[in-house]
Amino acid sequence: MTSYTGRFAPSPTGPLHLGSLVAAMASYLDAKVHRGQWLVRIEDLDRDRNVAGADEHILASLQRCGMQWDGEVTWQTRREPLYEAALAQLAQDIYPCGCSRKEIADSQTRLGLAHHGALVYPGTCRAGLAPGKAPRALRLRTPQAPHRVIAFEDRWHGHVEQDITAQVGDFVVRRADGFWAYQLAVVVDDGAQGITDIVRGADLLDSTPRQLYLQELLGLPQPRYLHVPVVVNGDGEKLSKQTGAAAFDNGAPAEMLLATSLLPAARFLGLDIRADTIPAFWQAAMPAWENLLRAHVHTA
Fold this sequence. Notes:
The chain is α/β, with parallel strands linked by helices. 36% of the residues lie in helices and 15% in strands.
């Protein structure tokens, strides 16, 4: 069996909810089934949204659920020199942008660039900042002629491709608030940590082509990807802290988490598991995940 290193990378914006538990469970099981390593990385670059103590609460919740990571936990805010080095490596393809989100939205409406509601950057500052505009974000140029189509095989969804020129445009690598953009940071971290397999929610499927493009420019290996379905609320919105998702771990006895959290998360993933203890749950979950991969999931 080839070497496998996976990861779970939560943001410390609050405690884990059922949706994040589903992602954690899928990535953990996939690593265990492949006899690989499972790392935990705290993605805390967005300091304005971080909640004090949330990182420790997340780690404790994982352990209470019987999930133990390999090696040391890493925090993105301790890795910023790596992002600076990547930015320097990309310097010839980066330019300052002075556009606000409203200006981009107005431009795409005027030019007919909307793609399924996404904000496609129209290239306003590509040739230089307009008079009177101050630099806000840093953007990475995407190829214009010909358009660049990025394709990959997702282990859950099969063949996926995206014309990043037409469907995304030049995208942000450093935000207007000075924080590193998710796309750059996650690529740098995955490369530095030797991540071979990324298992995460399907809400990030659309981001993957941008990350593959960055991997190419930075000379990093391409991991395998598996994007599991995301849990939604009654309004059909992705379950998240922003949509009022409740913490799954409210400090109740650990064994209560089996019935209230672990078994529901497993059922959502399509795993039929019967267990009366947390150790028994994981013992049953690993072969159940392996069977799910064989029966329903694309191989890459």
